[in-house]
Structure formats: C-alpha cells, structure tokens
Amino acid sequence: MTNIDWQPLEQFLQGANRFVVASHVRPDGDALGSSVGLAEWLDGRGQTSLVVSPSPVPPRYDFLATPGRIGHFGIDITSEHLNTYDALIILDLSSWSQLGALSEWVHSFAGPRLVIDHHVSQDEMNAVVLKDTRAESTGTLVLDAIRRLDGLEAINPVVARALATAILMDTGWLAHPNMTASTLTDLADLVKRGADLAEIHRLLFQRGTVGRVRLLGEAMARVRLEAEGRLAWSAVSFADFARLEALPADTEDLINHLMSIDSVQLALLFVEQRDGSVKCSFRSRKLNCAKLAGDFGGGGHRAAAGATLEGPMAVAIQQVRAAALELLDHALKADPT
C-alpha cells in the first residue's frame, strides 16, 4: 500500500480514451513491466493504449508483450502517429533527459499528461505527478492503483506477469534493501492472478547469449578496487559490443557482480555510448547514490542511481572516481567501523 491518492488518476483516465504510455531511455524491467502492465489494464477497461519506448527493447524482455505491443519511437512509431492519441502517461521517470528522443515530442504534446514514479528527482513536466519515493518500483505503484481503483480481479495473467517482472527486477530479485514485507504481499497477489515467478526467472536469466557472457567476463577482468577495497569499478567501451557480439542492454546487471565483492561499499560501472557520452551506474548498500549521481546531472535512489556524462571515457571515469573516493572518505571519518 502506498501513500498515493489514486483519484486524480481515475479522473485523468475519465477525461480521455486513447493513451500513450512512455518511459525512459535504455528501458529496464521496471520501466517495461510497469508500462505493459498499465497499458494492458487500460485496454481491459475498454480504453486504447500505445506503449512507446525511446530506445530499443532489450531482447530479454520480449516475453512481456506480443510483437508490436511496444513501439520504438523514431523507428516504427512517429510523432504524427502519437499525436492521434488524447493523453500521455509517463512511468518510472521524472526528468526530461531520461525521455531521450521522446523529449521533443513530449514538450510539444498538447494533451494532458500524468507521471507515475518512485524516484527522488523531479523536473517540472507540466503534468499531474503521482509519486511515492518509498515504493520499491513503479510496478508497485501501478499495482496499487489497479488494486484500489478496480480490485485485484482486474488483473489478468499478462498484467500480473508484467508487474511481477517490474517489482522483481527493481528489487534485485528481492535481494536489495528496498524490499519489504509489502513486496512479498504484492507478489503473492500477482501470483494469485497468474504470474509464474519461476517462468519469469527462466525467461530473464536463462536465455543469455554468448556475447552477454563474453561481455561479463571482459567487464569483470577490468574490475579495479580502490580505497582498501571499498570502491569497485569497471568500464565497457562502445567498441566492446561489436567485438564481443554483445548488446548495450547486456550491461544491465553487470554492476551487481561488483557489489558481490565482500569489501565493496560502492560500485561504479561506466558504459560508453554510441555518441561518445558515458553512462555511469552507481550501487551501494549504505551510501547515498542518488546524491552522488545528482552531482553529475543524474538521479535515482539511495541504493541505486545513474548519470550520463560527456566523454571521453577517461575523463568521465576520473571525475566520478574522485567524487566517489571523497564520499567514501567522508563516510569512513563519520563511521570508522
């Protein structure tokens, strides 16, 4: 149960019939799971929805929806087509930069818009904002909205599978500290409505490619430890993807391997993008990743955050490492144990 009053969502839905459902660049399980879950629920209500992504959908998530259910903006979905819809729902983001190629269209869209999110940061997006930063995932919020507006019986197996994927991926399969007793209650409800957690796990983690395994090996071979093992970081260049026959989406879970090192308190993963910019992911069990990412124009949660920096890679690494080492030094002085 969240602290959100969902009546503004009900009023928003009553004011339109055709909805664009959008989320952030480089979509993860929460972005895609919450988007598909919400869209399928809207369709079940007799309304029309279109899920659009500013980036390609990673192959590991192809089980969430039927082919064509999620459109890639600029490839198979145009601005002209999006303009035939009445309203816009944005999920799992609260910053313009995270919209990527969709940002220009969203700026120009004349219809009403609504944001459902659980991140701390918030840009002014001229939208109704429904947010609970205590929620472990945006999928959690979508589930709560459906449960309180229409009841659990409104959740079909497709919705259940999508929302379970969102919750499980944003809690690290229940391994992250954002998991609570309510998480287990939510998953139990979704299992009752048709989510098969064992099958979801198989589809997500047991359909890997040789390229993904090669990329993991390369990234782990490059791991560097600093600050007496409290900082771990690694880097992936854009050229690595072609050389190893991997995809940018294959980097999604790599940083979790850095956090598996016993001494590590803060992990960083640098991934060079096609345009030369560098995406940095931050993970920690105790330190404030959102604040650290915010220093570089990013954001997220206390335990997990991200930012995109201008290249070249060496400069980005130097800047973030310096800030990370300073954060670790302050933390050590505050708590020498």
UniProtKB/TrEMBL annotation:
GO MF: nucleic acid binding
Residues annotated as domain DHHA1: 250-332
InterPro entries: DDH_dom, DHH_sf, DHHA1_dom, Oligoribo/pAp-PDE_c-di-AMP_PDE
Domain DDH: 19-167
Protein name per UniProt: Phosphoesterase RecJ domain protein
